[in-house]
Amino acid sequence: MKFFLISDNVDTLVGLGLVGIKGVITHSEEKVKELLKTAVADEDIAIILITQELNAKCIKWIDDFRLKFFKPLVVQIPDRHGGLKFGGAISDLLGISSKGSERFLKNVV
C-alpha cells in the first residue's frame, strides 16, 4: 500500500519525496479530479495526501469523492501556507478561554 501526494507547492512535494512519497504539483481543480480518478484505479494507492489550500479549493467534490469511495483515503495535510488550526476548536468544544486552553493543552500533551 502506498501514499500519493497532490500538492500545490514544491516544498511539500520535495519534503514528502524525501521519505519516498510520490506526488504531483497542480493548481487546477480539473487535474485534481483526474488524479483522484486515477488513484481509484491504482490498487496500490491506499492514502492520498492533499495540501490544505488545494483541498479548500476543491472541497465540494473532494467531499463527494470521500463519500463515494472507501479507498483510497483522502487526507488533508498542512503546507507552508499554515497549519490546520485545532486549538480554537478544542477550546470551543471544552468551553474554556484561550488562556485556559493553553494551560490545559500543556498538561494534556
Looking across the biggest beta sheet, what order are the strands in?
2-1-3-4
Q: Fraction of residues in helices?
A: 40-55%
Count of alpha/pi helices: 6
What order do the SSEs take from the amino end to the carboxyl end, as H and E? EHEHEHHEHH
Unreliably modeled segments: none
The CATH homologous superfamily of the largest domain: ATPase, V1 complex, subunit F
The oligomeric state of the chains shown is: single chain
CATH fold name of the largest domain: Rossmann fold
Q: Which structural class do you get from the secondary structure elements?
A: alpha/beta
Number of beta-strand segments: 4
How many domains would you count in the coordinates?
2
For the largest beta-sheet, the strand count, sense and barrel status come to: 4 strands, parallel
Span from first to last CA?
31 Å
Overall form:
globular
Q: Give Rg in angstroms.
A: 16 Å
Tell me the name of the CATH class of the largest domain: Alpha Beta
CATH-level-2 architecture of the largest domain: 3-Layer(aba) Sandwich
Mean pLDDT: 82
Classify the beta-strand content into a percent band: 15-25%
What would you say this structure looks like, in words?
- The protein is an alpha/beta fold and 109 residues long.
- The protein folds into two domains: 2-77, ATPase, V1 complex, subunit F (Rossmann fold, 3-Layer(aba) Sandwich), CATH 3.40.50.10580; 83-109.
- It contains six helices and four strands.
- The protein has a four-stranded parallel sheet, sandwiched between helices.
- β1 (2-7), α1 and β2 (22-25) form a beta-alpha-beta unit.
